[in-house]
Write a structure and sequence with these properties.
mainly alpha, 2 helices, rod-shaped
Length: 95
């Protein structure tokens, strides 16, 4: 698989230039660790921003029907009705 001549030359080069080899290995290790650190920072910042956005933005917005100014909660609760409003837009409830 590996050419023996190429492997012999590579091993001889690595052994004879130990200082250069050690510096190369340290440079690669430093680059990988910096890459991991920055990736972790970006991921953490993304999670913080996502949490802030989810906290500030509502999942449900309740608005009055067109033509009405307010939503009257007493009309949505069971009991005697004071007004006969159209509640057909509410699912599972009978007006």
């Amino acid at each position: 698989m590996i050419d023996t001549l190429a492997a012999t030359i590579a091993i001889r080069h690595i052994i004879s230039r130990r200082r250069q080899t050690i510096l190369s290995v340290l440079a690669v290790a430093l680059a990988v660790s910096i890459s991991v650190i920055f990736t972790s920072l970006v991921t953490g910042q993304q999670q913080i921003l996502t949490g802030l956005v989810e906290e500030k933005l509502p999942h449900v917005v309740v608005k009055p029907e067109p033509g009405l100014e307010f939503i009257h909660l007493h009309d949505l609760c069971p009991g005697p009705k004071l007004h006969s409003w159209n509640l057909s837009g509410l699912r599972g409830r009978k007006a």
